[in-house]
Amino acid sequence: MAGRTVRMRNRSRIVGAAAVAACAALVLTACGSTKDDVASGGKGGDGKGKVGVVLPLLTSPFWQSYNDYVPKMAKSEGVDALKTVNSNSDPSQQITDINNQLNQGVKGLVVAPLDSAAISAGLDQAERKGVPVVAVDVAPEKGKVAMVVRANNVAYGEKACDYLGGQVKTGKVVQIMGDLASVNGRERSQAFRDCAKKKYPGLKVLEIPAKWESDTAASKLDTLLNANPDIKGIYMQAGGVYLAPTLQTLKSKGMLKKTGEKGHIAIVSNDGIPQEFAAIRAGQIDATVSQPADAYAKYGMYYIKAAMQGKTFKPGPTDHDSEIVKLPSGILEDQLPAPLVTKDNVDDPKLWGNTVK
């Protein structure tokens, strides 16, 4: 957007004034949330054509829900989306999947990257073919994307830290981390770590790198609990893959106590899936940060259609309670809201986890 504005300034004063007025209107009307809130890019289109949708995996209830939302949101946004493709947790397979979609002649791609660095190979292929890409859930380290649709993952780690810090004054807590090849895993881990060190010095943070793998989480948690039976809190960075193995491991050791019972281990998670809500209601876990699977699908479709029409965006607030920010890489990211869910608001009908089975 910035480069385009510079070029426009080199035109006549009349055109330049119109461009400035258009940009001013853009700022005032919540950048990037409706058709009237975007500025047309230099290369317009009609937004028509097939759109490929590449998933990272389908072993998590979160991604299963996102997968279910995709055709519904594609229809509501007027996007002709192909059947989703599952990369099955394999970054190299994801590059192959992207190339296969490009070879089918798609005019746009919505991709949830598995590896923040490796995805650049697929993004480069798309750019060479002139196909715009919207990234969902994970921001690439480099490469061209029209928009990243994602919640603030630093806030995930901080919210989890603040919740556990309020429940556990002193003692050991463990964070079961995601894949550190993903910016999501790195940001959640570092944010939790930094928050605990700065705000809750009485906490001793132990860590399990689990790569979004349930089996890895279960085996490493079992080993850690054998050496540290005095754990007082757990932060699971992805309830979709870590909830069941964590509860099963605690139960097998006689350590799964309900909230309010002596010996209860405070547990906070990320995802906002129905299974987490059920665990909160049952007193098995205490809280989760709801990652908006429905909004990921909705705005993934919205932004890919806009990109196919040649529209661009700029940083600023939107009319869907989010904010578009510019990342250090120069990529724009629409940071969608992700509320903390506890027993006090777990039955809120507005939470997407209460709208699916």
Supply database-style keywords.
357 residues; 41% helix; 9-stranded mixed sheet; 17 strands; 11 helices; 6-stranded mixed sheet; disordered N terminus
Notes on the protein architecture:
With about 350 residues, the chain is α/β, with parallel strands linked by helices. The chain is about 40% helix and about 20% strand. The protein is built from eleven helices and 17 strands. The protein has helices at about 1-10, 15-30, 60-75, 90-105, 120-130, 155-165, 185-200, 215-225, 240-250, 275-280, 295-310; strands at about 40, 50-55, 80, 85, 110, 135, 145-150, 170-175, 205-210, 230-235, 265-270, 285-290, 310, 315, 325, 330-335, 340. Strands 2, 3, 4, 5, 6, 7, 14, 15 and 16 form a nine-stranded mixed sheet that branches. Strands 9-8-10-11-12-17 form a six-stranded mixed sheet, sandwiched between helices. Strands 1-13 form a two-stranded antiparallel sheet. Helix 3 crosses helix 11 (about 295-310), helix 6 (about 155-165) runs parallel beside helix 7 and helix 8 (about 215-225) packs parallel to helix 9. The longest helix has 17 residues, at about 185-200. The two termini are about 40 Å apart.
The gist of it:
By secondary structure, this protein is α/β, with parallel strands linked by helices.
Strand content: 15-25%
Query: How many distinct beta strands?
Result: 17
Unreliable residue stretches: 1-31, 33-42
Main beta sheet: strand number and arrangement?
9 strands, mixed
Mean pLDDT: 89
Radius of gyration: 22 Å
The number of distinct helices, counting runs of at least 4 residues, comes to: 11
How far from one another are the termini? 41 Å
